[in-house]
Amino acid sequence: MSRNGERRLRVDWVRCDGYGLCGDMLPELIDLDEWRFPILRAGPVDRDLLHDAQRAADCCPMKALILEPVPADRRR
User: Fold this and answer.
1) Which of 8, 32, 40, 76 has its CA 20 to 30 A from that of 70?
2) What is the DSSP letter of 17?
């Protein structure tokens, strides 16, 4: 069960190939390292960025970026 409907981004590191598209599409939440692998900023996604976060996850060529509910037992 999620906490207040909050969502967070997660990377499936087995799938991620470092294309960097996610960071290009969502620089507010995702930095890229020197090899273009994502570095996610901690915490839930702000409501005003949810659409962009879902779009970035949908556009990931390897489907490695996942927008998921924040577990109820997680604290900010």
Assistant:
1) 32
2) -
Pair 23, 36: CB distance under 8 Å: yes
The CATH number of whichever domain residue 28 belongs to comes to: 3.30.70.20
**Residues of the chain above pLDDT 70, percent:** 92
Q: How many domains does the chain have?
A: 1
Nearest CA-CA partner of 28 in 37, 16, 40: 40
For the stretch 55-73, pLDDT in tens is 999 999 999 999 999 988 7
Residue 76 lies in a domain: no
> What is the Cα–Cα distance from 61 to 17, expressed in whole angstroms?
9
